[in-house]
Design goal:
The chain is an alpha+beta fold. It is built from 10 helices and 12 strands. Helix content is 50%, strand content 21%.
């Protein structure tokens, strides 16, 4: 069959140069979008897409970027590859069906509906040879591809493979961070409950015994018992604060608003709370609590603040947490582990944390957390 003479069809070095120029400087998702568009224009093809396999078998794929009939397909879609030419790609570096596509694959209903008759695809593989997906070019006319055309396509397929591998590594890292935070929270809850149900209750019992002893004591003994009781009360307060900082029991039992009210009750600052916590998931509520708690602690320890405002409300599909104080400002989020730990916790939920702290103008911490995290 003679080579395709579709208007605008480029070949060999011209094809390579056109796609290279079209994708130059593009990274991430923008690279994939630029790739499908410029490959489609270089091949004068009806449809070009990059699909990611859900597992190395390639039996199910999700289309990450697609260009059809002169425009992007904006709605993501996925499909099973059984009975389609895409199922063949897992076994070869590249495959080509220059014509009679629907006759070869009569079960490919999408190709029939779109009137597609030719297919060229390159397998996308990771650096260690695992099947990641494919880059496919389809047209309504016969499409002959020469060795130089395939070579050019494989160059850009290698870049697409690197992007898919990067995305996989990013997802694995996010999952790892989520597991670390989940395990940390579970341990914090366990230690917090142990302190609450064990050490704190024992301190209360000792305090009661001291009161009883004081009733029968006199003189110097009574004074010593009173001093011991004061020290015990201070130790109890410090232990209560420690338990609350680990993971407050009130958060699990009574919700975000009640937990923050309990936290603020012992603050030396004037605290204004405006909290709406209806229907929050446990992880979102925990993230909001720790953003507020860390901000309150920093304001009390370092900012010299006299007033702090805590506002937590859903807005659209996000929960917005804003904590602002009237302290000295100048907070540096890169110093210490408190704010950086908060950023990790919020980012795991696909949210973001911002800190504004100009010297002399107070500190404002703002977190936006997707409600459907």
């Amino acid at each position: 069959m003679p080579p395709s003479t579709a208007p605008g069809r480029l070949r060999g070095h011209e094809l390579l140069a056109a796609v290279a120029a079209g994708t130059a400087g593009a990274v991430g998702e923008q690279f994939l979008r630029s790739l499908v568009r410029h490959v489609a224009e270089a091949f004068a093809a009806k449809l070009v897409h990059v699909a990611e396999a859900s597992d190395p078998s390639g039996m199910h794929v999700r289309v990450l970027a697609a260009w059809y009939d002169g425009a992007f397909i904006e709605e993501p879609f996925e499909y099973d590859t059984a009975g389609q030419p895409c199922a063949v790609v897992t076994d070869y570096p590249w495959v080509s069906f220059p014509d009679a596509l629907t006759e070869r694959f009569p079960d490919d209903q999408a190709a029939i509906d779109l009137g597609l008759q030719s297919y060229l695809a390159v397998c996308l593989r990771s650096s260690d040879g695992v099947h990641l997906g494919h880059l496919a070019v389809l047209d309504a006319r016969p499409m002959e591809a020469g060795e130089e055309d395939v070579a050019a396509l494989r160059i850009f397929a290698a870049r697409a493979s690197a992007e898919l591998e990067r995305r996989n590594q990013e997802r694995a890292l996010e999952a790892s961070r989520a597991r670390v935070i989940e395990a940390s929270d579970a341990e914090r809850r366990r230690v917090g409950r142990d302190l609450h149900d064990g050490a704190q209750q024992r301190l209360v019992a000792v305090s009661n015994l001291l009161r009883a002893a004081q009733m029968d004591a006199d003189g110097r003994t009574a004074e010593l018992i009173a001093m011991a009781e004061d020290e015990l009360a201070q130790a109890h307060a410090e232990l209560r604060e420690l338990a609350r900082g680990l993971h407050p029991v009130a958060l699990a039992e009574r919700g975000l608003k009640a937990a923050l009210e309990s936290l603020c009750a012992t603050s030396s600052m004037q605290v204004e709370l405006d909290v709406v916590d209806d229907g929050l998931s446990d992880d979102v509520a925990a993230a909001a609590y720790f953003v507020a708690a860390e901000s309150l602690a920093n304001a009390a320890r370092y900012a010299g603040a006299s007033r702090i405002d805590v506002r937590i409300r859903p807005r659209g599909r996000e929960l917005h947490v804003e904590v602002a104080d009237d302290g000295v400002g100048g907070a540096d989020p890169t110093c210490g582990t408190g704010l950086s730990g908060l950023a990790d916790r919020v980012e795991v939920l696909r949210g973001c944390l911002d800190v504004e702290s100009p010297p002399g103008a107070g500190t404002r911490v703002h977190a936006s957390i997707p409600l459907a995290a």
